[in-house]
Amino acid sequence: IVVQGSYAQGLALCSSDVDLAIVTGTSRCARGQRRECDDDDAVDRRLMMATLRSLADALDELHSEEIRVALRVFSARMPVLRLRFVAGSEDVLGVDVSVAGSAARGACDRYVHRLLGRDASGSAAAFCRLIKHWAKRKQLTNTLRGGLSSFCFVLLAVFFLQTLPPGRADLIKHRLPTHRDLPVRSLRTTRSGCPAQLVAPVAVGTLPVLLEAFFQWASQELPQCSSVALSVVTGQAGLRLRSKGSFRAPLQLDVPFGVATDNAARCLRRDVWEQLIVPELARGRSVV
């Protein structure tokens, strides 16, 4: 079982669900189904569906009062079994279960955790968590309706911290490293358990300064980045590669250590971006 998502990034909110992946060890690459495979985590869809159906049926047979199957999202690009844990009459925790072909699943989350962990002040993690919270409160993270996922907002926050303008002496101390400054060989493997959440006291006044600069960058410069791909691995804007469907998205956010054409913002619709998200980013400058 691999922990992924917010908990693997160390950025879980009180409202965050737990994302788990069942590792089957039978990726399509390992079984030779691709002549040239660029994704060693790819799993045959039929195996995904069979695994999740078996788990759902087993849980249904338990008739447990503490855990129930809430939703079978099997038509999605990545099939998910959504579970709910209940204590008495209170719904306390959601768990999304998917299927992975290898422990490489979640490497992107572990990379973010490692990046943010290099900031001893804790301000980077607090800043990313605050951006996530803001985006959720503004209802910008509904990917089913064309929004940006919470992970996308984390990637934007990280990229911003990696590319802080050198002329801002009050900001440059918060600059994050890139993969060149980190040991990344172990990212495609994982240990059992949940990574420690990144929580540390932050100096008063730090977050408002970062937020103001972020909203200025995101509202003025980010909308001009539709023709490039933003990467938190290199900390640079690079060539945007064409891939089926995702090239139509108005923003390209490379998935760290994923397939080259993976776009974390693949669900983003242009009308949602231009009419909802960008205006909210602009309004964000006035509330800091």
Automatic annotation (TrEMBL):
<dbReference type="GO" id="GO:0016779">
    <property type="term" value="F:nucleotidyltransferase activity"/>
</dbReference>
<keyword id="KW-0472">Membrane</keyword>
<keyword id="KW-1133">Transmembrane helix</keyword>
<feature type="transmembrane region" description="Helical">
    <location>
        <begin position="146"/>
        <end position="164"/>
    </location>
</feature>
<protein>
    <recommendedName>
        <fullName>Polynucleotide adenylyltransferase</fullName>
    </recommendedName>
</protein>
<dbReference type="InterPro" id="IPR043519">
    <property type="entry name" value="NT_sf"/>
</dbReference>
<dbReference type="GO" id="GO:0031123">
    <property type="term" value="P:RNA 3'-end processing"/>
</dbReference>
<keyword id="KW-0812">Transmembrane</keyword>
